[in-house]
Amino acid sequence: MAPENVYVFKFGKDELNNRLIIKYSHTWTGRIKINEIDLRLHKQQHPRIFKRESELIKYLKQHFAQQKKVSESNGKH
After folding, report:
1. What's the superkingdom here (predicted)?
2. Which of 19, 54, 71, 73 is the most buried (most CB within 10 A)?
């Protein structure tokens, strides 16, 4: 078993400190296997942890839908 590798993607403005951390390894056939996806938004101390990409995408869709409703109710578009 190969050691776990990590990719860190930083995005957004510097003061937000948004990060997506992907921990992965390689199978014996050379394919990449994602072990864990950590999402830290807006300086979160405890990240949201996902096992699959589909779980992350589902969360992001819900999160953006909620943010859109909040911004519309505040009069922002």
Report:
1. Bacteria
2. 19
